[in-house]
Structures are given as C-alpha cells and as structure tokens.
Amino acid sequence: MKILHIDSGIFVEQSVSRKISRDIVTHLTAQQPAEVVHRDVVLNPIPHLDAETLLATENPLSDELIAELQAADVLVIGAPMYNFTIPTQLKAWLDRVLKAGVTFKYTEQGPEGLLKGKTAYIASGRGGIYSKGDAAALDHQESYLRNALAFIGITDVHVVRAEGVNLGDEPRQQALAAAEEAVAEL
Q1: Domain, as residue range, for 141
Q2: Is residue 104 within 8 Å of residue 153, measured between CB atoms?
Q3: How confident is the model at residue 57 (pLDDT cuts 50, 70, 90)?
C-alpha cells in the first residue's frame, strides 16, 4: 500500500489537523505495511497558480505532485478550516493536481475523474461547530474537498473531524477524544 500524506495546518506544532492526520497514518500503517510519502505544503510551500504556470506545456513540480497522487492507493489530507474553507497552501496543491487530460477529462456527459479506486481520509480541524446548525452553510472546507476529490475520481472519502476546538478546554478535549475514537474505528 502507498499512502500520500498531505499536511496543511499552519500552526505546525499545535495543529489539530496534523495530529489527526498523523494518527490516521499511524493507524493505517499498523494494519498493513505501507510506503508513506509525506508532503507538507506549509513547510515546503507550493507556489500559487498563475497564468504562465497554467499554460506551460511542461511543469516539473506539477508533474511530481500528480505522480505522487497517481501512485498513492490512499490519500490522507490534514485540512484545517480557516475562514470557512481550506488553507491556501492546500488550494495551491489542488490547483496543481486537478489537471484536464491527466487527473480528469471532459466528456460529452460531463467531467470524468481518472483517479478511481483510491481512498481518501480528511483530517478536519475546526475552531467552531460547522457540521450542523446554521453554521453548516458556511462549510466550504469538507464539502469543497469532497467535491474536488470526486471531480478527479476519488469518491471513497472518509472525514475524521475535531470541531469546536476553540470553544474552551472541555470542548477541545471532547473533540480530540471523538477524533481519536473515529480513527480507531477506521
């Protein structure tokens, strides 16, 4: 098994999403030996997409990122919510790997993902509660990731979430405990 582990939490040492993503990788590799490729898009940032990059016929960085994704059986994404969506560092990675003719293609029936048969785990960290109630309409993090992954053919997506971590010590501990339980059940 090959695992591509992506981290995008900007608070490297205190990041909830990084802790959860590490826990997921540890859990998966304890069940089955695996080769793990770790890409930290904060400590090793990917330049944001620009017109020159998008139109370039050759792009070694994009090719490398796509090759990592294509080779992976499992994708583990540490994705915190910042201002209702994913970090820009993670968006920069997605902008490089969502590539027409390579990871998806356009057909008469609409776009078709070309990376079928992969499993993804999203390690979601959120300061508030966005999975229910009025704030659910503001979730452009998990919903965006699910849709972006489905667009390239990855539809077996599991979310391990710790939310409400900025609502006080007790809610934080409850959220982390719930995430630990969810990882154990994978």
Answers
A1: 2-185
A2: yes
A3: confident
